[in-house]
């Protein structure tokens, strides 16, 4: 394994560690959960992506052939991190009364998708809009 | 050089996991704990990958992939439970 290859893999691993640490510091330090979501969803995803690319290059450099396990994990994490952040934010809006009071108007016929049906229909709703969960 | 980088990465990821455990214990809401657990799983995946590089073995990738799937599924199921009152309707 050449010096350049070792240098590239080491820099990628250390970059990934830096961003993982930054995301976790943001999770521990920021004051509100809506602000805390930024650390794990952006910085930590970048960090794990850099670490996995470093691992892929390492196993390509030592002669094991280019393996696609790391690309699979990277793609999976990059797809699922926004989904989990979206679900956490939605559950937070449903559970927090002060956040609901500060929501701006949507400017449409229906309200926010967490509380109201997305498209108003003539049929009676399966569940009354605005009464889902403990939010009311 | 890679061994030194892996040792530094090991220490850094362990510090990040300690910060996540702090948020997991001290989080005022249950969603803080869900978020901390999600980040803890991501840090555990990074730790598994770094250990795999350190030992120069490709044996740990299945474990990392399983951790990724289980972590996302638990987060999604927990948020779904908090949103709707049950997981599978």
Label this structure with key terms.
heterodimer; A: 136 residues; mainly alpha; 2 domains; 5 helices; elongated; disordered C terminus; B: 89 residues; Helix Hairpins; 0% strand; flat
Give an overview in words.
The complex is a heterodimer of chains A (136) and B (89). With 136 residues, chain A is an all-alpha fold. Chain A has helices at 3-29, 33-36, 38-61, 69-95, 97-101. Chain A folds into two domains: 3-101; 108-136, no CATH class. Chain A is elongated. Chain B is mainly α and 89 residues long. Chain B has a single domain (2-84), classed as Helix Hairpins (Orthogonal Bundle). Chain B is 84% helix and 0% strand. Chain B is flat, with a radius of gyration of 15 Å. The mean pLDDT of chain B is 90. The chains are: A mainly alpha (136), B mainly alpha (89). Chains A and B meet through helix 1, helix 3 and helix 4 of A and helix 1, helix 2 and helix 3 of B.
């Amino acid at each position: 394994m050449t010096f350049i290859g070792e240098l590239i893999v080491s820099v990628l691993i250390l970059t990934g560690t830096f961003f993982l640490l930054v995301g976790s510091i943001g999770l521990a330090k920021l004051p509100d959960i809506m602000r805390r979501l930024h650390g794990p969803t952006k910085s930590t995803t970048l960090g794990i992506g850099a670490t996995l690319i470093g691992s892929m290059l390492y196993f390509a450099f030592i002669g094991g052939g280019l393996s696609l396990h790391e690309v699979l994990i990277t793609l999976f994490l990059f797809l699922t991190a926004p989904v989990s952040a979206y679900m956490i934010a939605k559950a937070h809006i449903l559970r927090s009364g002060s956040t609901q009071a500060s929501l701006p108007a949507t400017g449409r016929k229906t309200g926010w998708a967490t509380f109201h049906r997305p498209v108003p229909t003539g049929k009676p709703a399966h569940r009354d809009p605005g009464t889902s969960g403990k939010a009311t | 050089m890679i061994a030194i980088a892996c040792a530094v990465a090991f220490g850094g990821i362990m510090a990040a996991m300690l910060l996540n455990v702090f948020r997991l214990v001290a989080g005022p809401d249950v969603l803080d704990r869900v978020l901390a657990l999600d980040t803890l799983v991501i840090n555990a995946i990074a730790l598994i990958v770094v250990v795999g590089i350190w030992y120069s073995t490709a044996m740990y990738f299945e474990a990392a992939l399983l951790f990724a799937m289980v972590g996302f599924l638990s987060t999604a199921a927990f948020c779904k439970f908090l949103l709707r009152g049950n997981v599978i309707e």
